[in-house]
Amino acid sequence: MHWMLDMNFREDESRIRKKQGPLVFNVMRKIAMALFKRDTSKSASMARKKKMAGLDDDYRSTLLESGIKMR
Predict the structure, then answer these.
(1) What confidence score (pLDDT) does residue 10 get?
(2) Number of helices and strands (H, E) in the chain?
């Protein structure tokens, strides 16, 4: 299953390779994946949720607010 996470965000194509960049973006990707997995407001695939978050400001706000509430 780990390989699926790498393909979702196309990490192999990432050009972030210096200093702390790879570590920081890896953590950000993991946070994003956790938000998508916890989201129950939409019943869609991960790929569809990522696309919706990229296109819909309201849905993206909902995801980010749910992340704040997780704390």
Answers:
(1) 64
(2) 4, 0
How many C-beta atoms surround the C-beta of residue 33 within 10 A?
Answer: 15
CA distances from 5 to 57, 58, 61, 68, 71 (A): 24, 25, 23, 23, 23
Q: Do 46 and 36 form a contact (C-beta atoms < 8 A)?
A: yes
Instruction: Give me the average pLDDT of each 10-residue run along the chain (71 residues).
Output: 50 70 86 87 88 90 83 60
Q: Give the C-alpha separation, 36 to 31, whole Å.
A: 9
Measured between alpha carbons, how far is residue 60 from residues 13, 36, 50 in Å? 24, 10, 9
Claim: this prediction has a pTM higher than 0.70: no
